[in-house]
């Protein structure tokens, strides 16, 4: 088996969940005895690489300078590089199995090119969000100020979110994506929720399966420091309008004061200053009394290498997002650390956190319900899974790679 | 009077060789005037208008309209091109105007339509020469000016001692003989006096319009009939002729002068004149030769008291009107029968102009719009509409007649840059200029002209009723002129990749506005092996704005999809018909598929399925296809005609549009017509019926028009249902909207379509095959 893994970024330059998962799939398959050859091709925007060129990063690993020309239709900026440089690369290496993680930043065209140049190769595409379904940055949240959740894309509904774009243009977008998806043998989704959304959108159910992204193994022996009796709840991630930090702060202020004395919420999140001014004002107004009271700590950003250490210092991880999420990395990381998760009860969060077992659900976007659940935690609530290590665990890199291998073997 | 062209001088050419002018001033003298020739190179048999200028002052305008043998011989076709500029036609006003022009300024002869100047073979005379040799001499002659003598004064003219001109012919009467003017026919009484009689002093013929003057004794009317006895349209005015009464010693009450204007047409040689109240007074009149201007001017001068009658009876005649108009005067201070104003006048000089303003008059007073070159139309024939502002201002004086004051009137025909406009009130025998105006240049582009013209608040019903008289002549003329220019433009053709050498079918796709459709169509085509092998894909750029993008995308996309195709850059926006006709002209396929750029096949095999019935059935003219909206509902499944009460014409309808598609039938179904968004036919048939009609404004109805032409040739039309194509037409645009420009365009195009096909559609709708399901 000669394997090519394509990702929208190289972990040397970017540490998003998708590229890390792709790179780990590559290294695991590379070291697999059944593999006769393995290649990793990552899109890059390094200015030192000529537009469209493919250059070697280290043995087996390549960087491809590509950019998006049209985010609406997910078209590449450089279609000729696909039929020239990328085609030459494929012809030279002739992989028989190709795993593509994501198409953002590269464009969909590489899919048809793979099928054109290597008609016999097995082609697997891993989807990381709802971009193909939703033009609103793949969020499936309405564009109006209420940010209502969107349950299903349609030409008319999408036009209502983007009045300047006609339903006909949304048809063209969909058709363009569809034409490129047609050549994919199998789609992989990290969550059943995302899989169902793509089935509703039009991918046949038998052509899309769920494989969770692999996680590193982690020794859970860092001692938890701090005041006993105080429940520490950590938020890890970006502070954006969709991540629900405002809901979290509202919920915290609605917790009865005597219960709040036993809670400490820590915000490990960055980039508030990049958000809209109204959002910044809202957060600052909400957090000021809580910071003064001492039940809130605004820690700020962190390096990725610090994550597990920081996470091991909290009792709970909270994910209050107001959008669906897919398979949030932070949930997988909490599982690696053995921490229960307080999660909004929608989408990928509801799927990945088992209510009462690996964490606790609260009604998404509802600070009153969140306050109730925070009060339960303050009063010492512990979900069943915390005492059972085999429940609080995630899929390893090797396990994930094995599932991919098995999937490809099943393709005729 | 014909003079040989100068041996020395080469004629002047203007503009380009297939559309400009040529001419030369050959000869001039102080006695006879200036002579020369001037012709339109494209149409030397049509008279061309010249203008004489002293410096920059216009002296005279006229037509070079006499056949000239030497030029005709040189061209190999009749050249109506000789002109003579006679001094006696220069108006008093023009003479006084050149008093301020420097004497050293040269005289100039220009082409009226373009302002280009003719060369002279002789030494060019100056204004001073004109003053010294011409005007002095003319003014020294006894005056023949009779301009605008008040009517009352005619009645007190002293009887002439000498008999009138026809007196001498009294003796030579032969009842029943063919006579020519002047002539007299009298019936003597037993006492030897005159019992009754008719005298014809002048008969002047121009543009098929005969003007007779003379007198009647004991008779009050003169009827004109053709040789076969049919009454000819005519207008008669009676007045006193004391000179005749006195000369023949008849009671003044028994003699009447008459002015009779007869529309005898261009073919007649003789007419019959009959007094209905004195049957014995009848004669056959030999029509005079077509009059020279001098004779016409002479008659007009004599009829100054009756210019109103003369003008309204000869209004349709360019030559008569142009002779009469210079004699019109401003109304006297107490004239209160009409008011009016020219607010806008736009002319496309080659095809005509439109005048808009307001006019109101009390009954019997008519208002005319006229150009100085003699184009006259009655305001009552204009499109009229109500204007509150005018009613408020004039209701006190005009009461109910202040309604509907707005007018919108077309003056079709070749206009001259030097033409002035006037609004003329005609009340009985009087005619006055009540307002003046000047042309401004109209947009030459038909749609731009239409945007201006359609912006007037004309009520829809009146707009429709006035379409053929006031819109079509100008807009249609502009469309035709534009198309002629477009046909001369050579397109640029670029081929990308390697299209099939002997294609079965050429797919012709005009591109307008959007550039993103190109890639998605090519992507769909590239996945269809039949299209790749058998079809020549021809894109026609119909929008110069997108040319650069399309050409660079085309180069890239032909590599990406490994597909050969042709791009024709039409260089201008020709619209649906023009672009498709251009594509067809350069297509190599035996069959032509006209496809909109926003139609996308979503399954391969569609073209084969459409070609099959055409190959199998020789009686088939056109094959259309089922098209779906992007939401999956029917966009087109065959076309139908539906009568619209408001528009008073048939509209193209898509039955079942917006509905869920019924299960497709494998056999193609016969249809009355199909949409041009996807239409297949043999190239031969397309050529035979003349392709798409390019005379529609912006675009509409071209497809049904083509379908009906194909039907007329005896062929049938079918629609294929079991194919899958999406047409991204906006459902919301299928309605007409609430009005505005777009609605007027529909009116315009529907009028054209209805005029051509109304009865045919009536018949087709009776055919049980096409009767809509109950």
Describe the structure.
The complex is a heterodimer of chains A (412) and B (774). Helix content of chain A is 36%, strand content 19%. Chain A has 412 residues and is α/β, with parallel strands linked by helices. An eight-stranded mixed β-sheet of chain A has the order 3-4-2-1-7-8-9-10, sandwiched between helices. Chain A has a six-stranded parallel β-sheet with strand order 13-12-11-14-15-16, sandwiched between helices. The relative contact order of chain A is 0.11. Chain B contains 19 helices and 41 strands. In chain B, a hairpin with a 2-residue loop joins β16 (270-275) and β17. Helices cover 27% and strands 31% of the residues of chain B. By secondary structure, chain B is of the alpha+beta class. In chain B, the strands form ten sheets. Chain B has a nine-stranded mixed β-sheet with strand order 27-30-29-28-31-39-33-40-38, sandwiched between helices.
């Amino acid at each position: 088996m000669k394997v090519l893994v394509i990702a929208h970024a190289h972990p040397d330059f970017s540490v998003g969940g998708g590229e890390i998962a792709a790179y780990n799939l590559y290294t695991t398959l590379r070291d697999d005895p059944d593999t006769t050859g393995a290649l990793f091709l990552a899109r890059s925007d390094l200015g030192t690489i000529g537009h469209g060129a493919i250059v070697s990063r280290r043995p087996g690993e390549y960087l491809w300078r590509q950019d998006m020309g049209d985010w609406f239709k997910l078209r590449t900026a450089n279609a000729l590089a696909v039929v020239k440089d990328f085609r030459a690369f494929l012809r030279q290496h002739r992989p028989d199995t190709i795993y593509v993680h994501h198409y953002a930043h590269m464009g969909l065209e590489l899919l048809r090119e793979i099928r054109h140049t290597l008609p016999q190769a097995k082609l697997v595409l891993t989807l990381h969000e709802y971009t193909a379904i939703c033009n609103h940055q793949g969020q499936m949240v309405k564009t109006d100020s209420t940010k209502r959740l969107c349950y299903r894309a349609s030409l008319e509904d999408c036009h209502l979110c983007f009045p300047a774009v006609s339903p006909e243009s949304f048809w063209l977008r969909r058709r363009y994506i569809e034409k490129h998806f047609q050549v994919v043998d199998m789609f992989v989704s990290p969550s059943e929720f995302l899989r169902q959304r793509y089935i509703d959108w039009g991918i046949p159910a038998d052509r899309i399966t769920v494989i969770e992204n692999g996680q590193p193994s982690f020794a859970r022996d860092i001692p938890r420091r701090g005041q006993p009796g105080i429940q520490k709840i950590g938020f890890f991630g970006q502070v954006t309008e969709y991540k629900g930090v405002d809901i979290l702060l509202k919920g915290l202020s609605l917790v009865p004061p005597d219960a709040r004395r036993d809670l400490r919420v820590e915000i490990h999140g960055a980039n508030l200053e990049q958000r809209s001014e109204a959002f910044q004002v809202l957060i600052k107004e909400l957090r000021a009394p809580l910071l003064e009271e001492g039940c809130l700590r605004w820690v700020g950003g962190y390096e990725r290498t610090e994550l597990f250490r920081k996470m091991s210092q909290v009792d709970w991880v909270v994910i209050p997002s107001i959008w669906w999420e897919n398979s949030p990395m932070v949930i997988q990381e909490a599982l690696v650390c053995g921490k229960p998760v307080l999660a909004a009860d929608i989408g990928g969060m509801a799927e990945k956190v088992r209510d009462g077992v690996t964490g606790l659900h609260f009604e998404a976007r509802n600070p009153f319900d969140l306050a109730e659940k925070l009060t339960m935690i303050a009063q010492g609530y512990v979900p069943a899974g915390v005492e059972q290590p085999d429940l609080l665990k995630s899929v390893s890199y090797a396990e994930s790679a094995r599932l991919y291998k098995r999937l490809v073997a099943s393709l005729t | 009077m014909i003079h040989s062209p100068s041996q020395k001088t080469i004629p002047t050419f203007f503009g380009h060789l297939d559309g400009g002018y040529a001419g030369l001033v050959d000869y001039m003298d102080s006695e006879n005037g200036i002579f020369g020739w001037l012709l339109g190179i494209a149409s030397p048999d049509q008279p061309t208008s010249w203008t004489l200028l002293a410096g920059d002052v216009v002296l005279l305008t006229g037509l070079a309209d006499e056949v000239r043998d030497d030029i005709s011989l040189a061209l190999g076709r009749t050249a109506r091109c000789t002109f003579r500029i006679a001094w006696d036609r220069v108006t008093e006003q023009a003479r006084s105007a050149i008093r301020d022009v420097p004497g050293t300024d040269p005289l100039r002869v220009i082409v009226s339509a373009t302002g280009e100047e003719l060369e002279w073979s002789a030494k060019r005379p100056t204004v001073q020469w004109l003053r010294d040799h011409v005007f002095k001499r003319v003014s020294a002659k006894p005056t023949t000016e009779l301009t605008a003598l008040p009517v009352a004064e005619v009645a007190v003219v002293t009887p002439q001692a000498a008999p009138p001109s026809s007196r001498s012919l009294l003796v030579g009467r032969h009842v029943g003989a063919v006579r020519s003017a002047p002539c007299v026919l009298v019936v003597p009484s037993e006492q030897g006096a005159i019992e009754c009689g008719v005298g014809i002093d002048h008969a002047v013929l121009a543009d098929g319009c005969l003007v007779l003057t003379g007198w009647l004794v004991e008779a009050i009317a003169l009827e004109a009939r053709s040789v076969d006895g049919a009454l000819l349209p005519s207008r008669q005015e009676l007045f006193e002729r004391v000179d005749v009464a006195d000369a023949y010693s008849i009671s003044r009450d028994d003699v009447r002068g008459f002015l009779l204007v007869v529309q005898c047409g261009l073919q007649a040689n003789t007419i019959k004149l009959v007094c209905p109240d004195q049957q014995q007074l009848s004669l056959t009149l030999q029509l005079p030769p077509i009059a020279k201007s001098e004779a016409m001017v002479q008659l007009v001068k004599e009829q100054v008291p009756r210019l109103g009658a003369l003008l309204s009876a000869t209004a349709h005649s360019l030559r008569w009107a142009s002779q009469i108009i210079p004699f019109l005067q401003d109304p006297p201070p107490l004239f209160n029968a009409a008011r009016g104003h020219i607010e806008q006048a736009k002319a496309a000089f080659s095809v005509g102009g439109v005048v808009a303003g307001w006019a109101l008059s009390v009954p019997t007073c008519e208002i005319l719009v006229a150009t100085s070159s003699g184009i006259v139309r009655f305001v009552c024939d204009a499109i009229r509409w109500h204007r509150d502002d005018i009613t408020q201002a004039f209701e006190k004086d005009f009461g109910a007649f202040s309604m509907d004051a707005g007018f919108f009137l077309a003056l079709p025909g070749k206009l001259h840059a030097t033409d002035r406009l006037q609004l003329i009130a005609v009340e009985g025998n009087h005619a006055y200029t009540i307002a003046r105006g000047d042309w401004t240049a109209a947009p030459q582009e038909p749609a731009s002209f239409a945007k201006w013209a359609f912006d007037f608040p004309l009520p829809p019903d009146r707009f429709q009723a006035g379409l053929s008289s006031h819109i079509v002549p100008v807009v249609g003329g502009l469309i035709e002129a534009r198309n002629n220019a477009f046909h001369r433009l050579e397109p640029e053709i670029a081929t990308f990749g390697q299209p099939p050498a002997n294609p079965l079918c050429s797919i012709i796709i005009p591109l307008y506005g959007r550039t993103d459709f190109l890639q998605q169509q090519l992507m769909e085509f590239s996945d269809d092996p039949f299209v790749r092998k058998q079809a020549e894909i021809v894109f026609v750029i119909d929008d110069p704005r997108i040319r650069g993008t399309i050409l660079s995308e085309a180069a890239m996309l032909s590599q990406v999809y490994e597909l050969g195709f042709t791009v024709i850059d039409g260089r201008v926006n020709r619209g649906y018909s023009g672009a498709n006709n251009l594509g067809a002209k350069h297509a190599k396929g035996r069959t032509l598929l006209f496809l909109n750029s926003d139609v996308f096949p979503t399954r391969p095999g569609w073209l084969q399925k459409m070609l099959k019935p055409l190959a199998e059935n020789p009686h088939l003219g056109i094959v259309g296809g089922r098209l779906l909206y992007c939401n999956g509902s029917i966009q087109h499944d065959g076309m139908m005609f539906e009568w619209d009460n408001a528009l008073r014409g048939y509209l193209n309808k898509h039955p079942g549009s917006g509905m869920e598609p019924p299960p497709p039938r494998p056999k193609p179904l016969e249809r009355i017509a199909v949409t041009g968004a996807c239409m297949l036919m043999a190239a031969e048939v397309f050529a035979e019926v003349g392709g798409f009609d390019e005379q529609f404004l912006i675009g509409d109805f071209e497809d049904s028009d083509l379908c009906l032409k194909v039907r007329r040739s005896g062929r049938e039309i079918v629609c294929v249902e079991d194919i899958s194509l999406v047409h991204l037409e906006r459902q919301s645009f299928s309605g007409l909207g609430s009005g505005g420009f777009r609605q007027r365009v529909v009116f315009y195009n529907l009028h054209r379509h209805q005029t051509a096909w109304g009865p045919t559609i009536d018949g087709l709708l009776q055919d049980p095959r096409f009767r809509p399901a109950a």
